């Protein structure tokens, strides 16, 4: 038992130490090598409020069957803030307070400064920022915080001024529109991210979401008197998804006004106008104060009454608020009344003005001197601390007390609750979460650990989890930070939003510690810190600031230096931006930034170094736009990858510019190629065919290319070719004009000649022949086959007789055979000089005898063999060839 208890001590101690706030942690480092005796005395030295000594429950109030408590969160640190003479807007979730003198209320005192100031405080009354209020536009009608902690101030003429938490005006100023300007805003109501206002002409306007702040007019409620009260049901809780405005008007009804209509509700239920209304957090219930001094709680569509209770005053309360979902608070001058579903109301007396700040699980009560939190006592806490409680949790808590006093009663208690130990432990853990008092948190957690040591089946990390949450909560609740979140609010808000709020309030160190502690991404925090640092450090030289920034930025792997650099650039610190972006390892982020800060050359270098063609193009296009062409050409000339990419791109899309580039670098031949290519492109244009005059430009292009090729010795061939091409195009063009047939352009020289002959235009063919110095042989070949194509056998024969053909007669034979004109072929076969050719030609037209004769003249046995095979079907021919071959071999043998 002894060792087990000691073991359990060390656990308890760890719990206690871990409860210290995050900020204190380093100074309270626990050394695990300490001996157990020390551990024990350390524990007994802790000042723990003894249960027997402090009756926790004595501070509770009973409302119907539920307990409520109202612990003080902070004594307010502010001085001389008279809530009666100020307008106050408090943000939920332990958010900040905005305070401004209410000019509609006061008679100015001499002592008071004539300057009207808007002051922002934390919930503990610590001044966050202030600014002089000098807006025109009349009375300040309404003021409220949005979900992202922007302060919204609506003035009479319908202008909406927005402030951040550092009291900086966020521009542009918004306007609720012309009608509001003309008729004045009389009142407004807010919700998380929107507002509704009513003008003195009784028209309603709404900004549904400040993220997209446009004012919309709602349906005309058709009233001619100011409503007694106004409340809104947030869009997220309405059927239509649009805001619903409830107006308590003189007839015994409530009007529900929406964008597209007005409804009257509560006609059966109300007997007079409502004086004050407030909708519950979930939009389901409406608490209202009736004309005859009653608190009425109904469904928000006024169909069912939940509570109707007489109040002591017939005057409507100054403030009406829901406290959680179970009770409603009514505040008159010095009295705060809490009403539940049944039983006597609870009275609280205040001798100073207070402000009720509804939270999801209670109401914060702000006064000149303190901030309190009124909430229903959680069940676990009730089970432990109710006077005379014999719940397992209460007994466990008691057992710890006995144990601390070394009383044997500790064991006795434990034995009593053995079977329900897990639930006792759970209750202690849960109650811990709901405590604001750190020493009581400690005691409760010690009780939980004490119990856990004796119960094997309790989830072990439950206590650690709770410690973690409480360390965060205690840290942000500390008066310096002043965010008094309850555990329920914290869970609803989520840690990441909390961290967002901390960094927004420039509590970067704490935000960093918390995100580190909770294992969340620290990048958000460090990034925000770095940006704020840059904004705030106008006087620190670049190099020094860079050091400071790098020191922190390196804490977070993968952080975007480029983003920080971008911010530096936006703040006019281009040099710092350039220094920062050097540290960005990802070219994809680095390069665009370099461009945006005007470091094009470095950007191009980085982009080409990393070889990402997309990035290179990005830089190219950027520089291209910004620089003079010659400067641009010089830039890319020295970077082969960039140059090649540019050329590739230019070939497809930017010929003119690419030509300029080639000219600038003296690559005339490349310009020439481009021109040549362009001429082809022109040719592909359907307009260019049909002898259209587009051929003119084409020819010019080719000629230009030719002259450019001629500039360099190395391109004589190209120059010549271009020259010929131009000449050919010109002739073809003329031919098309004269023949009125679009069949010449872009055909080859040979085809041109052939086409001329086929068309019977021998003069033109001759002219082309002469122009292009077509050789005789080629000319013969072309003409022979062209004539055969048109079966002009007469012309062919005439042609064969002009002179001895330089290509011999074989092409004539071929052409006739191909045209399947044996009769024509026979005319030329005898003229073939070579008997072998003759033999073969005869064979091809099936004249075996003549073939055989020719073959035997040639004295070619092998040829005879082949011919025999050709005439294999023909037995007579076969025999003939055999005989001849035999004769031949005989002659050869002799
Ligand atoms: C606990 O208190 C006793 C007496 O007040 C003191 O002698 C002892 O050093 C304290 N132990 C620790 C760990 O502070
Ligand atoms: C409460 O504790 C104080 C000392 O801390 C002691 O003097 C007093 O007797 C205790 N009261 C009760 C009721 O135990
Ligand atoms: C605010 O509270 C302080 C301290 O209780 C008091 O002295 C002061 O008179 C109060 N101020 C106002 C304006 O009520
Ligand atoms: C917003 O209002 C303030 C004065 O109230 C004025 O100085 C400022 O120029 C306005 N901003 C814009 C963008 O109109």
UniProtKB/TrEMBL annotation:
<dbReference type="GO" id="GO:0042144">
    <property type="term" value="P:vacuole fusion, non-autophagic"/>
</dbReference>
<dbReference type="InterPro" id="IPR006926">
    <property type="entry name" value="Vps16_N"/>
</dbReference>
<comment type="similarity">
    <text>Belongs to the VPS16 family.</text>
</comment>
<dbReference type="InterPro" id="IPR006925">
    <property type="entry name" value="Vps16_C"/>
</dbReference>
<comment type="function">
    <text>Required for vacuole biogenesis and vacuole enlargment in dividing and expanding cells. Involved in the docking or fusion of prevacuolar vesicles.</text>
</comment>
<keyword id="KW-0926">Vacuole</keyword>
<keyword id="KW-0732">Signal</keyword>
<feature type="signal peptide">
    <location>
        <begin position="1"/>
        <end position="27"/>
    </location>
</feature>
<dbReference type="Pfam" id="PF04841">
    <property type="entry name" value="Vps16_N"/>
</dbReference>
<dbReference type="Pfam" id="PF04840">
    <property type="entry name" value="Vps16_C"/>
</dbReference>
<dbReference type="GO" id="GO:0003779">
    <property type="term" value="F:actin binding"/>
</dbReference>
<feature type="domain" description="Vps16 C-terminal">
    <location>
        <begin position="559"/>
        <end position="873"/>
    </location>
</feature>
<dbReference type="GO" id="GO:0005768">
    <property type="term" value="C:endosome"/>
</dbReference>
<dbReference type="GO" id="GO:0006886">
    <property type="term" value="P:intracellular protein transport"/>
</dbReference>
<feature type="domain" description="Vps16 N-terminal">
    <location>
        <begin position="58"/>
        <end position="462"/>
    </location>
</feature>
<dbReference type="InterPro" id="IPR016534">
    <property type="entry name" value="VPS16"/>
</dbReference>
<dbReference type="GO" id="GO:0030897">
    <property type="term" value="C:HOPS complex"/>
</dbReference>
<protein>
    <recommendedName>
        <fullName>Protein VACUOLELESS1</fullName>
    </recommendedName>
</protein>
<dbReference type="InterPro" id="IPR036322">
    <property type="entry name" value="WD40_repeat_dom_sf"/>
</dbReference>
<dbReference type="InterPro" id="IPR038132">
    <property type="entry name" value="Vps16_C_sf"/>
</dbReference>
<dbReference type="GO" id="GO:0016197">
    <property type="term" value="P:endosomal transport"/>
</dbReference>
<dbReference type="GO" id="GO:0005765">
    <property type="term" value="C:lysosomal membrane"/>
</dbReference>
<keyword id="KW-0472">Membrane</keyword>
């Amino acid at each position: 038992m002894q060792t087990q208890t000691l073991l359990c001590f060390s656990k308890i101690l760890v719990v206690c130490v871990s409860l210290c706030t995050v900020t204190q942690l380093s100074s309270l480092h626990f050394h695990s090598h300490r001996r157990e005796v020390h551990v024990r005395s350390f524990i007994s030295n802790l000042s723990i409020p003894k249960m027997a000594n402090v009756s926790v429950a004595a501070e509770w109030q009973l409302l119907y069957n539920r307990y409520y408590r109202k612990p003080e969160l902070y004594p307010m640190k502010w001085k001389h803030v008279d809530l009666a003479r100020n307008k106050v807007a408090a943000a939920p979730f332990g958010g900040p307070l905005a305070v401004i003198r209410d000019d509609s209320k006061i008679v100015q005192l001499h002592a008071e400064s004539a300057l009207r100031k808007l002051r922002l405080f934390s919930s503990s009354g610590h001044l966050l920022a202030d600014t002089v209020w000098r807006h025109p536009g009349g009375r300040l009608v309404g003021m409220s915080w949005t979900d992202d902690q922007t302060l919204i101030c609506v003035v009479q003429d319908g202008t909406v001024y927005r402030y951040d938490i550092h009291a900086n005006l966020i521009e542009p100023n918004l306007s609720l529109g012309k009608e509001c300007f003309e008729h004045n805003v009389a009142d407004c109501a807010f919700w998380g991210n929107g507002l509704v206002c009513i003008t003195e002409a009784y028209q309603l306007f709404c900004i549904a979401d400040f993220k997209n702040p446009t004012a919309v007019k709602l349906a005309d409620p058709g009233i001619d008197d100011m409503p007694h009260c106004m409340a809104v049901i947030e869009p997220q809780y309405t059927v239509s998804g649009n805001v619903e405005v409830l107006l308590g008007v003189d007839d015994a009804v409530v009007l529900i006004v929406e964008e597209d209509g007005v409804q009257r509700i509560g006609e059966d239920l109300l007997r007079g106008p409502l004086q004050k209304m407030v909708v519950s957090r979930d939009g389901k219930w409406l608490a209202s104060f009736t004309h005859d001094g009653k608190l009425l709680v109904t469904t928000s569509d006024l169909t069912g009454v939940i509570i109707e209770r007489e109040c002591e005053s017939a005057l409507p309360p100054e403030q009406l608020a829901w406290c959680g979902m179970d009770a409603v608070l009514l505040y008159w001058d010095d009295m705060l009344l809490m009403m539940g579903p049944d039983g006597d109301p609870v009275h609280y007396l205040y001798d100073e003005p207070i402000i009720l700040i509804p939270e999801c699980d209670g109401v914060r009560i702000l006064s000149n001197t303190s901030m309190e939190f009124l909430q229903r006592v959680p069940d676990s806490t009730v089970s432990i601390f109710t006077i005379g409680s014999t719940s397992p949790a209460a007994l466990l808590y008691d057992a710890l007390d006995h144990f601390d006093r070394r009383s044997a009663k500790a064991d006795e208690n434990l034995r009593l609750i053995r079977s329900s130990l897990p639930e006792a432990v759970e209750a202690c853990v849960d109650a811990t979460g709901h405590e604001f008092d750190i020493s009581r948190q400690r005691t409760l957690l010690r009780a939980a650990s004490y119990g856990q040591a004796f119960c094997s089946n309790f989830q072990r990390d439950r206590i650690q989890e709770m410690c973690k949450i409480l360390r965060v909560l205690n840290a942000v609740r500390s008066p310096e930070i002043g965010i008094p979140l309850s555990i329920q609010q914290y869970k609803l808000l989520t840690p990441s939003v909390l961290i967002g709020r901390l960094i927004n309030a420039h509590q970067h160190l704490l935000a960093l510690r918390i995100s580190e502690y909770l294992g969340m991404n620290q990048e958000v925090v460090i990034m925000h810190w770095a940006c704020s640092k840059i904004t705030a450090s106008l006087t620190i030289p670049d190099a020094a600031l860079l050091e400071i920034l790098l020191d922190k930025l390196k804490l977070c792997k993968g952080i975007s230096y480029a983003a920080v650099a971008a911010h530096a650039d936006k703040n006019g610190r281009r040099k710092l931006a350039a220094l920062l972006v050097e540290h960005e390892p990802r070219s994809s982020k680095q390069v665009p930034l370099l461009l945006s800060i005007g470091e094009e050359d470095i950007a191009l270098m980085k982009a080409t170094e990393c070889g990402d063609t997309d990035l290179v193009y990005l830089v190219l296009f950027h520089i291209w736009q910004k620089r003079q062409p010659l400067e641009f050409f010089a830039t890319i000339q020295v970077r082969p990858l960039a140059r090649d990419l540019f050329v590739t791109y230019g070939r497809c899309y930017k010929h003119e510019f690419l030509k300029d580039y080639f000219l600038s670098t003296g690559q005339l031949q490349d310009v020439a190629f481009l021109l040549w290519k362009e001429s082809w492109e022109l040719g592909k244009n359907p307009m260019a065919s049909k002898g259209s005059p587009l051929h003119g430009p084409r020819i010019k292009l080719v000629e230009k290319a030719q002259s450019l090729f001629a500039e360099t010795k190395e391109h004589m061939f190209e120059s010549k070719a271009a020259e010929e091409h131009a000449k050919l195009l010109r002739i073809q063009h003329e031919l098309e004009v004269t023949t009125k047939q679009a069949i010449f352009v872009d055909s080859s020289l040979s085809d041109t000649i052939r086409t001329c002959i086929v068309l019977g235009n021998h003069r033109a063919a001759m002219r082309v022949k002469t122009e292009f110095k077509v050789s005789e042989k080629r000319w013969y070949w072309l003409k022979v086959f062209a004539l055969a194509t048109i079966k002009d056998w007469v012309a062919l024969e005439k042609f064969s007789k002009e002179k001895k053909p330089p290509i011999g007669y074989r092409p004539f034979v071929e052409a006739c055979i191909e045209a399947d004109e044996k009769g024509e072929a026979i005319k030329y076969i005898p003229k073939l000089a070579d008997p072998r050719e003759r033999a073969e030609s005869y064979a091809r037209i099936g004249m075996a005898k003549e073939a055989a004769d020719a073959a035997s003249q040639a004295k070619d046995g092998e040829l005879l063999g082949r011919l025999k095979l050709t005439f294999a079907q023909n037995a007579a021919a076969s025999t003939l060839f055999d005989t001849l071959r035999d004769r031949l071999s005989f002659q050869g043998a002799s």
